Amino acid sequence: MSASPTLVPDQASSRVSSPGRAGVPQWMRSQTFVIWALLIVCFPLSRLVSDSFPSVNLVVNVLVLGLFLAVIAFGQGLVILSGGIDLSVASQVALGAFVTGSLCDNGVPVLGAALAALALCGVVGAANGLLVTRLGFPPFIVTLAVGTVLASVLLGMARGAPAQSSPAGLSELFARSTTLLGIPVAIWLFVVIAAVGLVVQHRTTLGMRTYALGNSVAASKNARVRVHRATVSVYSVSGVAYGLGGVMLLGYSSGADLNVGEPWLLPSIAAVVVGGSSIRGGAGSFSGTLAGALLLTLIGIDISATGLAEGYKQIVYGLVIVLALLGARLAGRRQ
Known about the structure:
By secondary structure, the chain is mainly alpha-helical. The chain is built from 14 helices and 4 strands. The strands form 2 sheets. A two-stranded antiparallel ribbon has the order 1-4. Strand 2 (179-180) and strand 3 (183-184) form a beta hairpin. Helix 2 packs parallel to helix 13 (286-306). The protein is globular. Residues 1-21 have low confidence and may be disordered.
């Protein structure tokens, strides 16, 4: 009789009613709650960097810009949840944007071009998963190598083209003037992405198996989980998420070059770990990742408002990741 692995999406946040030792409910002591609370507190604190903050415009900007990080961090979060890490993010984001722009330039309808780009990114993700499972190589080595090869292939295909132009329909979708019920369509897309991400990570077989892989591969095998297939599925879905991020960035920026994905690697990892997911895998919630994505977006906007160089954002993201690693090590010692 085989043992079943623990398939609990977020153990820390699921205990919503038990009081803590100091009389504080467990859910209020979870990192997900803390990050959401910190996000709310940081909005009025933004006035320290600009007299025009906080404002409705700031909230809109955070939600619109947070959309791209939320989509990309969803893919990264699945990989981290399974016990890996994906360093091919930048190349796959660029692939999504490049393929969509190229096909549209050749007369393919926007929807068809976008779907083809997402399918291709899914194939690249599946290749990552196959190399990890079949050859037993560490995920960070595999994804770094695949990302490097993919970037070189894209460079050759672009033939020195500076950027891909965005089709008019895609640009209009992300224009601030394009609204639904008075709210920018990009914000509605954020709501849809949040809902889909929560369902996929916490209410589907793929999500449950991803948690199981991160907790224990051996236990997953004992529970008759097809580890190879589950791992390939995780990386494939993540690739689709990166590609979707690239397609949306193409529309939002009215064009994109091959470096469009470079600024999103560190933030995608930082959003996941600051949202409470374990860097070792097996624990976390997409709700926390959403909060982490919005918080990092707000910090990025604040940094830009101070006039500091964009490089400071990367410093912040790097520090967040280092602090998360230190926290994971301390937590391991306490256990």
